[in-house]
Design goal:
Helix content is 31%, strand content 22%. The chain contains ten helices and 13 strands. The protein is an alpha/beta fold.
């Protein structure tokens, strides 16, 4: 197989994490059935890195990756010194994280439904999100499969984080009032299995909070890329790590099929991804000045505002212009 022409941003991710490959062979991949309805009748939407296919289930309309990487979580099994370098100024109190506005918004939404109680963050990463919940009325817990990232969360932010996948963490039944997954659920290969475990550990009336990229927005980007003939070098779906792509309808169906009752579905603020690596060669977690990335930052704000109009025109349903989807669901 010939090497792919790899996007610059992905090369820098590889340099930063020292784990993932620039391209993949068939031995890295596995075939799968639909994660929602278990059927095996997909239609191909798009192919990334020559072999990884984004497909839509013809039965339930879920968008997922097939074949997919066998171990997509390993993209986050990087070196501790690399991660600490990304957040050095944040740890020193000299800078904020670029997602801090998003994290604060997540917590505001959660507090509307559960302002106190035991709070579990699934996929804690370095703890940049969970640190915002300190002192806000919750008893905080985290679980993170990456040994490196969970170690950083414990040592740098003194967070109570287990190194494990949730199904292996052995939390007691009906223990938590809130289980939160921010930008995590799209990485999960067996979402129904994970939701069953969340259902087990949630107390009666407990809530699960999930924020994921919007599959319809990715389809919208694909149409634009095809229109301008710019599909070849783009990871439009980030399919090397995002293995399921939810829409408003399929996300609701996934949770309700596992015994949850939807309380609200909405969309949050856009994520303003930093672009330091384009100028200094290194990736940092703090915000980039507007002048370094004016077009994309402006477009993200514009699409967010348009998506709110679209949301109400569609009867409070997340449409094509929202980059992300947020759902709050309650244990029945």
């Amino acid at each position: 197989m010939s090497p792919l022409r790899t996007p610059l941003s992905y090369v820098q991710e590889i340099q930063r994490k020292k784990v993932q490959k620039k391209w993949f062979s068939s031995s890295d991949l596995e075939e799968c059935r639909c994660p929602l309805c278990d059927s095996n009748s997909p239609s191909i939407i798009y192919t990334e890195r020559e072999l990884i296919r984004v497909v839509r289930c013809n039965r339930c309309q879920l968008i997922y990756v097939n074949p997919r990487l066998k171990h997509p979580e390993e993209v986050y099994y990087g070196r501790e010194e690399s991660y600490l370098k990304e957040v050095r100024l944040i740890l020193e109190g000299k800078a904020t994280a670029h997602r801090d506005p998003n994290y604060e918004e997540h917590l505001r939404v959660i507090a509307r439904f559960k302002p106190c109680g035991r709070f579990l963050d699934v996929g804690t990463n370095m703890g940049l999100f969970l640190r915002h919940a300190i002192g806000k009325g919750w008893e905080l817990f985290g679980v993170e499969p990456s040994p490196t990232l969970s170690k950083v969360a414990r040592e740098q932010f003194q967070l109570n984080v287990k190194t494990a996948f949730l199904e292996e963490a052995e939390f007691p039944s009906e223990f938590f009032d809130v289980v939160c997954l921010t930008d995590v659920f799209e990485h999960i290969k067996e979402p129904r299995k994970l939701l069953s475990e969340i259902y087990r550990i949630l107390a009666r009336g407990g809530i699960v909070y999930i924020n994921v990229p919007n599959g319809r927005f990715n389809l919208f980007k694909l149409r634009l890329a095809k229109l301008f003939r710019r599909t070849q070098d783009y990871d439009l779906f980030d399919s090397y790590e995002h293995v399921v792509h939810y829409t408003h309808e399929t996300l609701v169906r996934m949770l309700e099929s596992c015994g949850f009752h939807t309380k609200t579905v909405c969309m949050g603020l856009p994520i303003q991804i930093p672009v330091w690596h384009l100028y200094v060669g290194d990736y940092y977690q703090y915000p980039s000045p507007w002048v370094l990335d004016p077009l994309r930052q402006t477009l993200r704000i514009l699409f967010h505002r348009l998506s709110r109009i679209e949301y109400y025109l569609r009867g409070r349903r997340v449409g094509h212009l929202a980059p992300n989807i947020t759902i709050v669901a309650e244990k029945r």
